[in-house]
Every structure is written in structure tokens, then in C-alpha cells.
Design a protein that fits this description.
This protein is mainly α and about 60 residues long. It contains two helices and no strands. It is elongated and about 40 Å long.
């Protein structure tokens, strides 16, 4: 299943009132999530140096 950045931002906003659009802009969330994605890909490359995929599955724990 592939998600767009907009879908992820909407899902994050629904998790807590702290992520209300008046408190956290879409651009701020997008920058944070993009940075987080880059760090995950970097860790994947450290584990497997031959990791060349252009996409990676990322799971979010929605129960916390």
C-alpha cells in the first residue's frame, strides 16, 4: 500500500489536537516526515550497503 504525503499529514493531524493546523503547518510536518524518511533510508543502507531501492515500506505504531 502506498500513501501520499498528504494522506500521512492528515492521519497525523487526526492523532492528537497538538497537531492542529493552526499550531503546526503542513510544511513543518512535511519537512519533519521527509527528514525522518531520510534517516530511515540511511539506517537501511548501514544495515545493507547494497540497498538500492527507491522506495521503502515504513510502519507507524498507531496504538500509542
Amino acid at each position: 500500500m502506498a500513501l501520499t504525503l498528504n494522506e500521512v499529514v492528515l492521519a497525523v493531524r487526526g492523532r492528537s489536537p497538538h497537531f492542529d493546523k493552526r499550531l503546526v503547518t503542513d510544511a513543518s510536518l512535511a519537512r519533519y516526515l521527509t527528514g525522518y524518511q531520510r534517516s530511515l533510508v540511511s539506517k537501511a543502507v548501514q544495515v545493507n550497503p547494497t540497498f538500492l531501492a527507491q522506495q521503502m515500506a515504513v510502519g507507524f505504531n498507531l496504538s500509542s
